[in-house]
Amino acid sequence: MRRYTFIWYVSFLFAKEKKTMNELIEKEKIENMIYKIRGVEVMLDSDLAKLYECKNGTKEINQAVKNNIDKFPERYSFKLTNHECKDLWSKYLTANVSSKSRSNPRVFTEQGVYMLATILKGKKASQMTLQIMDAFVLMKKYISEELKNNKML
Hints:
single chain, alpha+beta, 4-stranded antiparallel beta sheet, 10% strand, globular
C-alpha cells in the first residue's frame, strides 16, 4: 500500500508543478533504484552505469572513482560486503546485483552520485544527475509527509 501512496504523492507533486507523465515515469524508475543500506539511501554502480549510458558499464564508473578516490570518502561511496550483497538481493529482487561478478558492487549516496557526475563527462550524465537528485528530493518529501501523518494519528 505504501508504494501506491508514494506514486500518488509524486503524481500530486508533479501535477502541482505541471510536469509531464514521462518525467513522472522516469522519476519512479529512478526511485526504484534507490536502496537503503547502512541506514542511508544509495544507488548501485550498475544502475548508475545504465542511467548514465556508460559504454563499459560499471568498469567506467569504478575507474572514475579509482582515479579520483580522494573525492569519494566512505560517506559518499562504499563497496558492499558479501553479507550486504546477499541481503540486498534477498530483500529487493529487482536489485541489479550479479552473482557472476568478481567483486561486490559499489554504491553511491546522494552526495556520491553528485560527485560522480562532476567526474563523468557528457550531456547524459548531467541530465540524469538532475533527475536522480529530483528523485532523492521526492523521497525525502514523501518520508517527511509520512512522518508528519504518523505523528498526527
